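Why does this matter for the project? Reviewers at the last site visit asked to see concrete outputs rather than summary tables. In response, this paragraph embeds two records directly. Each consists of the residue sequence and, immediately after it, the corresponding structure tokens. Nothing has been edited or filtered.
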Amino acid sequence: MEKEMLIQLWMAEGFLQPFSETHLEMEDIGDKYFNALSSYSLFHDLKRDSYESIIAGKMHDLVHDLAQFVSKSQTLVLEDGNKRNIFADIRHLNVISKKGMATTKLGDAAKKLHTLFSQVDVFHSMSTNLRKVRALSFCGANIDVLPSFLGKMKHLRFLDVSETKIKELPKFITKLY
């Protein structure tokens, strides 16, 4: 995963805390966190730029397995053909679809979601229930417009609409945090 994107997600979720008596930007604090985790070998296969700065890395397999175990009641990856119900306590949802359609009703899960990654348009099944979402990614999704209710999302700190059909961002984007 790219280091900058991970830091942005950490910021959106509120995971970064300023060091005492420093005036560092949150991105710089996230950079320090990432470098510290890398120095403890929690990230591997690090990619570096021409200045030898880390730009990407992978979570070590053991750390990944531990993270999945700890967060299994709050995290769900929903793929095509997956018939699993979405429980109301899910906080982090990744919807993966090769067919271009959502495979389940997502409305109940939307109320408590903090993170939503989706490759499909799930707006019709979630409507305005996405009030607590802090990170929203539709990278590569087949969408061409963002619904207006996104402008009322007080907690939204990260929005990724790269590689979509969206040609122009709506004006309400400027009202987001």
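We now turn to the second protein, recorded in exactly the same manner.
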Amino acid sequence: MNILRRNGVPGSNIVIMLLCQPRILMFSSVRLKEVVEEVKRMGIDSSRMKFVEATFALRSMNKSTIEKKFDIYRRWGWSDQEIREAFRKYPTCLTVSEDKLLAVMDFLVNKMGFDSTLVAKQSSIFHWSLEKKIVPRALFAQELLSRGLINNGLKLSVLFDTSEKVFLRMFVNRHANKAPELLKLYEQKLNTTEKLKSEST
């Protein structure tokens, strides 16, 4: 833990880290130092909890796995700078499985037509379930767009990072007078993706 203290990680954050990830005590001090230095090079403030999250994320993978994740994002048109910026915002964007990473990018970019760089700016997307949240909300937003009920410049953070309660208020209840069937339509999108998930398992 001296490595973390010497690099400016507050004691309170170290305590939280030990409570959440006690396995850190088993880390090689050499590897931990390498990870801490890499996180610092990425420009993450060591006094923030995000520094601890980033340290966990990088330490959970070996170097070859990290490079594989970088290669996947590069294939989707992300620059190394964009990958690092996405990591700074949401460190676990590198820890998601390769299958999920590819599935989310394929759906958002190839099927929904989102620009890959927009996804890079909202890397928290990879935290959410593809079947339960990303697909139904994206398909529902596409329907709203086709009806002229929302603008084309909708931010991905608004679409995916809002709670279910806020999402319903913003995109369903707001248009209840013009399109009272929207709630049923949204529920159909949810049920459709759940059905597709069960059929694929």
